[in-house]
Write a structure and sequence with these properties.
Helices cover about 30% and strands about 20% of the residues. It is of the alpha/beta class and about 280 residues long. It folds into 2 domains: about 10-75, no CATH class; about 90-270, Enolpyruvate transferase domain (UDP-n-acetylglucosamine1-carboxyvinyl-transferase, Chain, Alpha-beta prism), CATH 3.65.10.10. β1 (about 10-15), α1 (about 20-30) and β2 form a beta-alpha-beta unit. α1 runs parallel beside α2 (about 50-60), α5 runs parallel beside α6 (about 190-200) and α5 (about 165-170) runs parallel beside α7 (about 235-240). The chain is globular. This is EPSP synthase (3-phosphoshikimate 1-carboxyvinyltransferase). It holds the Pfam family EPSP_synthase.
Amino acid sequence: MTVRGELTPGYYALPGNVSSQFFTGLLFALPLLPGDSVLHSTTALESASYVELTLACLRQYGIGVEKSGNDTFHITGNQVYQPGRYQVEGDFSQAAFWLAAAAIGEAILCSGLTEHSRQGDAVILDILSNMGGDVRRTAQGLQSLPTRTRGCIVDVADCPDLAPVLTALAACSTGTTQIVNAGRLRFKECDRLHAMATELNSLGADIEEEKNGLVIHGVPFLHGGTVSAWNDHRVAMALAVASQRAVNTVVIDGAESVAKSYPQFWRDFQRLGGTIRQEGSR
C-alpha cells in the first residue's frame, strides 16, 4: 500500500459495521485540519461505545465534535489539543478473561477497573450476572467467584471483543447460549466465530456456527487436545480460559500471539495457578 499527500477536510462516509477504529482515527485527526469536516456512518454504527469513549477523551482535551443522530459527526477545523494529564483506565476487554475464568474456576480479584467506565466491554459485568456469575466490588477491585453459570442470549454488536471468552465460558456452562449480531467477528485477526467453534469443538465442546453468531450447548467438561490460536491473541486467551475444564492437557499452537495486546498473559496465568509447559522446554 502506498499513501501519498495529506489528509484534507471534507465529507467522509464509511460503513460503521466494520470497525469503530476507523471512526476513532478520523475523529482524532480531522479537528486539526484547516477546514470543517463531516464524518458519516453509512450503516448502523456498531461498537458505538468505543466512539463515545473517543468523544469523551476529545472533550477532555479541548476538542469539540457535534453529533447528529447516531451516525453523523460535524467536526470544526483549526482546533488545537490542550495539554493535560490522563490516567488510562484498566481494560475491561482484558479483565473479561479473568472475570470469566473465575466463574468456571477459582476466585480472582481484578484491580484498576473504573466503576462507571464508558468502555463498551464493561458490559461483561452485566453478561456474567445474566449467566449466573457472581462478581462483587470490593475496596481492592472486582472479585469474580466460581459459580454455576448458565446459558443465555448475548448480543455482542457493541462488545465484539468479548465474544471469544464468552464462547469459552458458554461451552462450560449449563444450557444453551446464543451469541448474536457477531458477523463482524469474521473480519478480525481471523474469523473468530469459525476459529472458536472449530477449536472448542475439537476439545469436546458442542457449538453450532451460524452466519452471524454461534449456538453453544454447554458440556460438563472438555477432554483436551491440541488446538490452534489462529495467530489471534483473543482466541489464544479464550482457549486458555477453557482449558480449566479440560480433563487432559490442552496444547495451544500459536500461544505467543497474546503479545499483541497482553504480553504478560501467560505470566499472569501462572501467577493465578495455571500450569504451563512451553513446547521444547523441560
